[in-house]
Amino acid sequence: MTVLITGGAGFIGSNFVLDWMGASGEPVINVDKLTYAGNVANLAPLAGDARHVFVQADIADQPRLEQLLAEHRPRAIVNFAAESHVDRSIHGAGDFVQTNVVGTFHLLQAALGYWRDTLGRDSSFRFLHVSTDEVYGSLGPDDAAFSETTAYAPNSPYSASKAASDHLVRAWHHTYGMPVLTTNCSNNYGPLQFPEKLIPLMISKALAGEPLPVYGDGKNVRDWLYVGDHCSAIRAVLARGTPGEVYNVGGNSERQNIEVVHTLCRILDELAPAREPYSRLITYVTDRPGHDRRYAIDARKIARELGWEPSVAFEDGMRRTVQWYLDNADWVKAVQSGEYRQWLDVNYVRR
Ligand code: NAD
Ligand code: DAU
């Protein structure tokens, strides 16, 4: 048996591949275009492991995907590949439409041909699409958390492109009967996250003694989930989810951004003390255009039907994350200098 993972050199994808290889040992075909967010160094622990085949390819390259599916005959596809950063989508939406919408379309087309013609509509095949809670829009302070039946109302170019991809996945099930699963997850944090996202950005800026830029009034709320818990949720959905169903995944850890930054500062004060408390670096800056006020996930369906619940408490996950960034300063430095772009040629065999 083999699974094909897309976007497996990014933050969540690489955590998932490492986790998967540790937990099951089942071979992985890892298809990643290696955009700025893809980093083969994330997969260094798998160097030399024949069960992990890395392929540098674009999910929009349908002939290449068809060839890979025919060659490796995976029993499942898990689609992490995406442009994922909201701020980048505001500055330029083209790559988001191309990868998240057009790319997902080509991946679905390749998967459909493979499932229908090569596997003879094998009902055990799965196409799992990894998506986001941002497709549901923004909540007011007293609104109920997003459930799987909340209407889509995406507000940013990023979330609109992810919403479009979710609709395509849904249609490939409804129209062609393809056994698809969709997960909509809240904000992840943990090791290997590209330092443009709130938590790793704040850690690296704090350690560099630079201002910590908090957008707007800092009271926007996100529901934080440790990345290892997201990986276990995806494993549960892949193993036991019902085709055609959607599962929301969240951490039951709603926090205002300013609370998150204060928590990070407090942990850093303890683990890497500086002359002054890190919170002195907090600086309020211009808000993100269209900034969604609050996200919150109702994850009762996945708990009830698949027995999944988050296992890492917010404070514990934050501590582990800060410690990881302290222990991996070279990783951050290489990402910031751009040096990580050269690691493909040095450390990895392209297939
Ligand atoms: P990331 O930006 O860290 O990684 C994305 C990966 O996809 C990179 O390795 C990149 O090289 C690859 N990629 C981009 N375009 C590609 C293409 N055209 N073909 C093949 N590979 C391509 O993203 P992430 O934070 O790891 O997110 C992974 C998935 O999870 C995304 O679909 C995202 O929408 C979703 N998600 C993320 C979060 C979060 O908090 N980070 C929460 C919920 C859902
Ligand atoms: O909710 C799930 C989504 O979470 C995923 O789908 C996205 O891929 C992922 O990037 C993330 O999106 P956010 O926009 O919520 O994450 P980000 O880390 O960019 O920002 C988190 C919050 O912190 C948000 O309210 C904006 C704020 N922020 C962010 C940055 C980078 C700041 O205040 N300052 C910053 O410098």
Describe the structure.
The protein is an alpha/beta fold and 351 residues long. The chain has a single domain, classed as 3-Layer(aba) Sandwich (Rossmann fold). The chain is 42% helix and 16% strand. The protein has twelve helices and twelve strands. The chain has helices at residues 11-23, 62-72, 86-91, 94-118, 157-176, 198-207, 227-240, 257-271, 300-306, 314-327, 329-337, 343-347, and strands spanning 3-6, 28-32, 52-56, 76-79, 126-132, 180-185, 187-189, 212-215, 221-226, 246-249, 254-256, 282-285. The chain has a seven-stranded parallel β-sheet, with helices on both faces. Strands 7-9-11 form a three-stranded mixed β-sheet. It has a two-stranded parallel ribbon with strand order 8-12. Helix 6 (198-207) packs across helix 8 and helix 8 crosses helix 10 (314-327). The chain starts with a strand and ends with a helix. The model is unreliable at 345-351 (pLDDT under 50).
The major β-sheet equals: 7 strands, parallel
The CATH C-level name is: Alpha Beta
CATH-assigned fold name? Rossmann fold
Order of strands in the sheet with the most strands?
Answer: 3-2-1-4-5-6-10
The small-molecule ligands in this entry are: nicotinamide-adenine-dinucleotide, 2'deoxy-thymidine-5'-diphospho-alpha-D-glucose
Count of alpha/pi helices: 12
Strand portion: 15-25%
Q: Helix and strand string, N-terminal first? A: EHEEHEHHEHEEHEEHEEHEHHHH
What is the correct CATH architecture?
A: 3-Layer(aba) Sandwich
Residue share in helix: 40-55%
